[in-house]
Write a structure and sequence with these properties.
This protein is α+β, with helices and mostly antiparallel strands. It is built from twelve helices and 17 strands. The strands form three sheets. Strands 11-12-13-14-15-10-16 form a seven-stranded mixed β-sheet, sandwiched between helices. Strand 12 (232-239) and strand 13 (242-252) form a beta hairpin. The model is unreliable at 1-22 (pLDDT under 50).
Length: 367
């Protein structure tokens, strides 16, 4: 056990290891040939997300060249738990294990506490063997936590949706409902596109530049479209033939997850974002989806947090964890860190072609 781990934590992971043989549990890295087994497990697990699927893992490996190190625990020949992991190397993290890069949800999925403990013990062993600074788990639920250092930075927002439009409208608080009804009076039209969309990518890059954030490479969206197929689309909200807003959305079981959204500020007065998300809710509800997942936001009253909070959704804290190995303190590579304040201001003023060229390289440093 690493000296960075408290004695009580070390004991927690030593004890289950002595019982693994009795429980017939074996933990190992999964092979590409076993991807269908992995995906089947993720889709049936109550806490599974689209980011746990091998489609996301393939995309990250193909585009960013991070090394996948997925862990799985078996009871005889039956899969009992999975933990998607990537080995990331960059100037900030130096060397770290992350579950999962560029995703808001990650962490372990397991059938039982012994299976979860087996994954935790294997993670400690792998992290120490690789000599990483830390391992980060982006858990979506308390049931996934493994007992490492907690990181209390983010929340997520979800809402139950139904086929009835008025029922959906009734769940929206008064002020936001007013903006939605205002947007419905505009001559907006929705176009749904599968595959890549250059219009969306350009708009998203402009929005990220304004926020002082590096953009994704075009091949990232191409890989997502290839690997997720019909489980992903891009919705364009058009006004007089021009895209006012757009969102890339994932579909997983009965969940709809709008993940990357962007809008043209020239149309802000018409409330295209309000139209876009309400239109997605009613479209999804009519097609049998039951959970609208608005995604992660920082707790600190960011613009994203305020916008989502005004939709009256259920707010849930995200119990992220860090296993400190070589590193002694919890790192903070988020935009909220004051150290990034000046670089973000400079970035937001650079010409768009420069940010499109350099952004993808810098983005690998903050996955």
């Amino acid at each position: 056990m690493s000296s960075c781990l408290p004695t009580t934590l070390a004991a927690r992971f030593e004890y289950p290891e002595r019982n693994f043989a009795q429980q017939h549990l074996r933990t190992r890295h999964l092979t590409p040939k076993e991807h269908p087994l992995w995906d089947e497990y993720v889709r049936q697990h109550a806490l599974g997300t689209p980011f746990h699927l091998t489609a996301w893992q393939k995309t990250i490996a193909e585009v960013f060249r991070f090394e996948p190190m997925p862990l799985a625990v078996f009871e005889k020949n039956t899969l009992r738990g999975v933990l998607p992991l990537f080995l990331v190397k960059n100037p900030f993290a130096k060397k770290a294990l992350i579950s999962i890069p560029f995703a808001v949800y990650g962490g372990a999925l397991a059938d039982s506490e012994p299976a979860k403990a087996a994954l935790a013990a294997e993670l400690v062993k792998t992290a120490q063997g690789l000599g990483v600074e830390y391992a980060e788990l982006r858990n979506g639920y308390e049931e996934q936590t493994l007992g490492f250092n907690r990181v209390d930075r983010y929340v997520t927002f979800t809402q139950q949706i139904r086929p009835d439009e008025e029922q959906i409208m009734g769940t929206i608080p008064r002020k936001t409902r007013y903006m939605v009804r205002k947007s419905l009076k505009q001559s907006f039209e929705t176009e749904i596109q599968t595959g890549r969309s250059k219009i969306f990518e350009d708009l998203y890059a402009k929005n990220l530049r304004k926020l002082g954030t590096p953009c994704f490479p075009a091949k990232f969206f191409a890989a997502l479209a290839k690997n997720f197929g019909s489980d992903m689309d891009i919705r364009h909200v058009k006004f007089e033939g021009k895209t006012a807003s757009a969102v890339l959305t994932f579909y997983f079981r009965d969940q709809v997850l709008p993940y990357y959204g962007a809008s043209d500020p020239a149309f802000n007065a018409l409330a295209p974002n309000n139209f876009m998300y309400y239109d997605l809710m009613r479209w999804a509800g009519a097609r049998g989806f039951r959970t609208f997942d608005f995604g992660r936001s920082k707790r600190n009253g960011s613009g994203s947090y305020d916008f989502k909070a005004h939709w009256g959704m259920t707010e849930r804290a995200l119990p992220y964890e860090l296993l400190l190995v070589k590193r002694k303190t919890v790192p903070n590579f988020t935009p909220a860190n004051p150290i990034f304040s000046l670089p973000r201001k400079i970035w937001s003023r650079l010409p768009l072609p420069v940010t499109r060229l350099v952004g993808p390289t810098l983005l690998k440093w903050v996955p």
